[in-house]
């Protein structure tokens, strides 16, 4: 279930810190662009709602709203997707044991790749819209089912001595299950998008639709390993969901009776821990998806993971040996130079003494 995760981490190990740093930098850039481009959206929505409430002409408000929504879409098409593709390209190089550089993050902006990436940007945007629609539909269905189930259980729960506690527990569990079920959709499309992006960065000359088809084929590869791999990704993500929802909520509730300063400190610490774990899980899943694509879903034996570990240890041993050899050579060279200097100095002093004796004899 987690063999592709382990193999990916082993293959990326020599450059793990570097690619993690590059991934975080890419995420910060994308986050900053998202925040900046969505700044005009809220005032535009407020203006539209106010025009509707006060029964004023809404033509100008609709135009402003549409324009404000177009800004983030345009930025994603021309900049955002290219940064995502560059990050995937960088990680893929690391897993394949190629040396990665910071400029790899911006490699898709090069001539010959950028124009072709625009088509994939539009396709990715279409998939994001599909994800949002599915999220709304599935969310509504789940919410309807949760409400009906709560209505059925409300009678027995209300007669209990701990009715409030049971009700709160039900709400927390229901919300967690809802997020977990929705994550099936998110991660499926995430795998698909990463797959066809990988296909593009590996072979930019292939057409956009052929690249997308390759993304689907990487899922349906005939090796019967994808579902297990997909389940492993979902289970790792479940850890994040549990920490971010029920655990965080229970900590917030349990700190309600203590000092406000202490409570806020505990909540901040928990929030930071959750963010760090979230980043690690997402990063590990991203590496595993790329590794799965590179292996085309072929089954991994334990010997292959062991081989990757042995290769890494061998590389480290070689580095140590080379370092020792270089140090030995430098030390030997320094000793030889010092010996030569001493001999030269001795010869000069001997010559000076001989000259002085010759002068006295004269």
Question: Overall 3D geometry?
Answer: globular
Low-pLDDT parts are: 319-331
**First CA to last CA: what distance?**
97 Å
Secondary-structure element order, N to C? HHHHHHHHHH
Instruction: Give the integer mean of the pLDDT values.
Output: 84
Strand content: under 5%
Count, helices: 10
Number of strands: 0
Structural class by secondary-structure content: mainly alpha
Radius of gyration (CA) equals: 31 Å
User: Biggest sheet, open or closed, and with what strands and sense?
Assistant: none
The helix content is over 70%
What does this protein structure show overall?
The protein has helices at 3-12, 16-38, 41-53, 59-95, 114-158, 163-202, 208-219, 226-254, 260-295, 302-361. With 362 residues, it is mostly helical. The longest helix has 60 residues, at 302-361.
Topology:
Blueprint: H1 3-12, H2 16-38, H3 41-53, H4 59-95, H5 114-158, H6 163-202, H7 208-219, H8 226-254, H9 260-295, H10 302-361
Keywords, separated by commas or semicolons:
10 helices; about 350 residues; mainly alpha; single chain
Summarize the structure.
The chain has 362 residues and is mainly alpha-helical.
